[in-house]
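User: What would this chain look like folded?
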Amino acid sequence: MNTETQEPFYKKTTTILFGLILFVYVLYILADFLVPLAFSGLFAVLLNPLYGRFLKLRIPKVISILLTLLLAVLVLGGILYFLSSQIIQFGEMLPVMKEKFGQILTDLETWIARTFGITLDKQAQYLNEAASSNKELLGRTLSGALGLFSVVFLIPVYIFLLLFYKTLLLNFIYEVFSKESSESVAGILQGTKAAIQSYIVGLLIETFIVAVLNSAALLLLGVEYAILLGVLGAILNLIPYIGGIVAILLPVIMATITKDGYTTQLAIVAAYSVIQFVDNNIIVPRVVSSQVQINALISILAVLLGGSLWGVSGMFLSIPFVAVLKIIFDRIEGLKPWGKLLGDEIPVRLITMDWSRRSRRKS
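Assistant: Here's the prediction, encoded as structure tokens.
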């Protein structure tokens, strides 16, 4: 006789729903605390192999961590120094670009007035209403920009502490579970760490390749600040779909401001479309780990949810976070269906068809 009592479906679903609502609410409230911690966790996992090599050379723990952070800062500083010349030139060209953009805006307003019959005063009224309605959004953007300085200082401190207390944190995870499942937990942690490192390294390699392709295409087309726009486009490419659109718009706007006609803009769209095709069909399958491919529906939902919770930072963190969840789900027996839901492998047939065939055979 089966003495186990199963909870009704509606009760179980309600409990899960309230749990998800509470979890999302906590993520939203603690955004200022969790965003730098999340970035630090990803960077700590990425830098852990380098830190481990310093330890193997019998360098003290604190010095090993400091050397690891120093190398990371030097690499980041080298990239910024490489782009600094174009950033300085971009700042010097701002007045000229502002004047050119104003001329284009005036021509656009005249065209709208002739085509749609909307007077210049009416267009100015619409723009003022739109600007006043976006004051709150502008305030949040400025607040996020001011908080960027605290994040820049917090992330190195968090990385240092995560690497320093790595053994303590791992032992805590082991002790939370029973001794019988320690081997299983160890396998999950080891596999998850390796997969995350492979995934992040793959993303960095993909970003570098896309940056080179973007910059080369813009240089051939004679677009101003080609290297700067190419690198920005590669970084935005980390945000699925939405980032790719913004990455195309930036050089198109630059070409519109600095060049006459629309031939260059069309060439930019064509070149970026080819690069996106190569990235999605050749670079990503071969460079980024195939174990953490997320389907398009989940990617879009994750990016939108991340943006609503944590802004631009949430958009960048959403895909790595979902990738980590998929890695964990794929390694735990009871959560494998959720891992399949996040993945991009589409089943050929429904499971119910197999079940119906099995039941017929038994009967």
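Residues 136-142 have pLDDT under 50 and may be disordered. If you want, I can go into more detail on any region.
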